[in-house]
UniProtKB/TrEMBL annotation:
Signal peptide: none annotated. Residues 210-242, 293-321 form the 4Fe-4S ferredoxin-type domain. InterPro entries: 4Fe4S_Fe-S-bd (IPR017896), 4Fe4S_Fe_S_CS (IPR017900), Helical_ferredxn (IPR009051), Sulphite_reductase_A (IPR014259). NCBIfam families: sulfite_red_A. This is Sulfite reductase subunit A. It holds the Pfam family Fer4_22. Keywords: Iron, Iron-sulfur, Metal-binding. GO terms for molecular function: iron-sulfur cluster binding; metal ion binding. It comes from Acetivibrio ethanolgignens.
Length: 334
């Protein structure tokens, strides 16, 4: 059972919500795209539902609401280390079904991968998720193929229509807030078919690591890392120590997003570097998403959002690579 509210009721309630929560949602950023005179849709804190991009999928994922691109881990002096205070407000994050499945992947890496990341955990426990329905498929997504087109583990679902707002809530605090509306049945909108369809390889042989596919795509890759930065499940980061100019013995350590595709990411002490060739990096990313991660945790890392296909300046299609691997597998079995 859900609720139907008028715009006036929803506007008043949302004003109350922003007093108690930091609300993150996809917003159209005019003129801030990668190319001249283009827009980009990415996440930021909002104060009104009018700011939300309801119709189009965000170019960047929800991830930066939970994991800051540039996060201070601690401040240091000669004899003292200070951890930044944790956020005081709870978070409400608007996202779509594929991204909601991405939460499970982030939790797996940061909370259940042999340790619990202190910084992620203290933000994650404050987060609630508002599902945004998908009335039609985006152009590059293949969530149906990945089984991520539907979700039921949301805290609330919101659908904006021409004359009313429809809400389904599972969280008790949110339910009390929205119960001022008229009770009605509310079912989330989920796509059942994508423009893009992906066939996943079922059992890749060791020969896949020598496939000519990797060299082909590696020659086109420019190692910009965009595919990683827009991905809702990539978790790689590096650390930086910042020393203040007025006192070189005082500073801070930061955790900064990184990419397995960029030059120098796999370099280690002594000057040695793993995966020097771009072909090796492309192979590593793809195999991690559809093979290695599944072997460890029992499900694929990729959620089929299709952002990597959309953002690549060299038009490298991750989904097409998967298609070709599945086709090679089929031919090898004959």
């Amino acid at each position: 059972m859900g609720y139907q509210l008028t715009y006036a009721e929803m506007k008043r309630l949302f004003s109350e919500i922003t007093q108690a929560y930091d609300v993150w949602a996809p917003v159209v950023k005019k003129g801030e795209g990668c190319f001249s005179d283009t827009d980009v849709i990415r996440y930021e804190k909002i104060s009104s539902l009018d700011e939300v991009s309801w119709e189009k999928k965000s170019d960047y994922s929800f991830k930066e609401a939970l994991l800051a691109i540039n996060e201070t881990l601690f401040y240091f002096t000669e004899d003292k280390v200070t951890i930044p205070a944790e956020p005081q407000k709870e978070l409400l994050i608007f996202l779509r079904s594929c991204d909601l499945h991405g939460i499970r992947r982030l939790d797996q890496i940061y909370l259940k991968n042999g340790f619990e990341d202190f910084y992620y955990a203290r933000v994650r426990r404050r987060a609630k998720f508002i599902l945004m329905g998908c009335s039609e498929s985006c152009q590059t997504g293949f969530c149906v193929s990945m089984g991520t087109n539907q979700s039921d583990n949301y805290d609330a679902y919101i659908r904006m229509e021409e004359k009313a707002v429809f809400i389904d809530t599972k969280d008790e605090a949110l339910k009390q807030l929205f119960s001022v509306g008229k009770e009605t049945d509310v079912e989330p909108d989920f796509v059942t078919e994508n423009h893009e369809k992906v066939t996943l390889p079922k059992k890749l042989s060791p020969a896949v690591f020598q496939s000519a596919i990797w060299e082909e795509y590696g020659e086109r890759c420019i190692a910009c890392g965009r595919c990683n930065f827009v991905c809702p499940t990539c978790t790689c980061f590096t650390t930086q120590d910042i020393f203040y100019r007025d006192n070189k013995k005082v500073g801070e350590r930061r955790r900064v997003w990184a990419s397995c595709q960029v030059d120098g990411y796999s370099d280690i002490a002594g000057g040695h570097g793993f995966r020097q060739k771009k072909a090796e990096r492309v192979r590593f990313k793809v195999m991690h998403k559809i093979c290695d991660y599944e072997k460890r945790f029992g499900y694929h890392m990729c959620v089929g959002c299709g952002r990597c296909d959309a953002v690549c300046p060299e038009y490298i299609s991750y989904s097409n690579i998967i298609h070709r691997l599945a086709k090679e597998e089929e031919e090898n079995e004959k």
